[in-house]
Amino acid sequence: MPARTEDIELRLLLEAINEKYQYDFRGYSIASIKRRLALAKERFGCRSFSMLQDKVLHEPATLPELLDLLTVRVSEMFRDPSYFRTLRERVIPHLKTYPSLKVWVAGCGAGEELYSLAILFREEGLERRTMFYGTDINTAALKKAEAGVYELDRIASFTRNYRRSGSRSSLSNYYTAAYGAAVFDKTLRSRAVFSDHSLVSDSVFAEAHLVSCRNVLIYFDRELQDRAIGLFKDSLVRKGFLGLGAKESLRLSRYIGGFTEFAGEERIYQKRGER
Ligand SMILES: C[S@@+](CC[C@H](N)C(=O)[O-])C[C@H]1O[C@@H](n2cnc3c(N)ncnc32)[C@H](O)[C@@H]1O
Question: Using a 6 Å cutoff on CB, does residue 75 contact ligand 1?
Answer without folding.
Answer: yes
